[in-house]
Specification:
The protein has two domains: about 10-45; about 60-88. The chain contains two helices and no strands. It has helices at about 10-45, 60-85.
Length: about 90
């Protein structure tokens, strides 16, 4: 008789990582799509009369800075949460 072969944890870990990667790629595509749509909408605004100077919009840099700050705050929060759980 052949011994029963148990699936290894590495296959389960690989499946979990694959699922996380798909989620990450989906979020990245969504963020890029929203950024492109927003930037196109900004450039589609009508111009002013000749007596007013046009002021350029920053092209989405402020959105990227805001997203970076939010990501940093999230990472710090989870890092502190993990470190307090390790102590208990």
């Amino acid at each position: 008789m052949l011994p029963h072969h148990k699936p290894s944890n590495s296959l389960n870990n690989l499946a979990i990582k694959n699922k996380q990667m798909k989620k990450y790629i989906l979020r990245l595509c969504l963020a890029l799509t929203l950024t492109i749509i927003t930037s196109v909408a900004v450039y589609a605004q009508p111009g002013f009369d000749d007596d007013v100077e046009d002021t350029p919009i920053d092209g989405g840099v402020s959105l990227l800075v805001g997203a970076g700050i939010a990501y940093g705050v999230k990472r710090i929060y989870y890092h502190k949460k993990e470190s307090t759980n390790d102590i208990v």
